[in-house]
Design goal:
This protein is of the alpha+beta class. Helices cover 16% and strands 36% of the residues.
């Protein structure tokens, strides 16, 4: 069983063209529950962030909610992300998953949040709201 915290507010998944400078709003002092992740490849820059931090020039996928495994987790532990994604897939809830050094996160569509939390609770996890 995992404790999974529902972070406040809505999140977006963004795409910027490769080489685009990151906007200063991404580097603003994070709130207690905010998470921002940035990854880049030769094809472009991907950003996951709270809606209000979204870069104006980015392509956006909006209205996601973020669930964070209460951590920190030991990097040697296996199966944590699968224990979240598998019940969500069985409930036909789309996910965007990402990890930080300390823990794992899963984005679910805001309109499917109730189904997502129910699926996680049925799988034995505790969702902290």
């Amino acid at each position: 069983m995992l404790d999974v915290a529902l972070l406040p507010g809505e999140y977006v998944v963004c795409r910027l063209a490769a080489g685009t400078p990151l906007p200063p709003a991404l580097w603003a002092d994070p709130g207690d529950a905010d998470v921002v992740t940035v990854s880049w490849t030769a094809d472009g820059i991907s950003i996951i962030c709270p809606s209000e931090r979204a870069p104006a020039q980015a392509d956006l996928e909006t209205d996601w909610r973020c669930l964070r495994v209460v951590g920190p987790l030991d990097l040697a532990v296996t199966g944590t992300l699968a224990s979240l994604v598998d019940p969500l897939a069985a409930a036909r809830v789309s996910v965007v998953a990402f990890s930080t050094y300390d823990t794992d996160h899963v984005l679910v569509p805001a309109v499917r949040l109730a189904e997502a939390t129910t699926a996680l609770e049925r799988a034995g996890h505790r969702v902290l709201r």
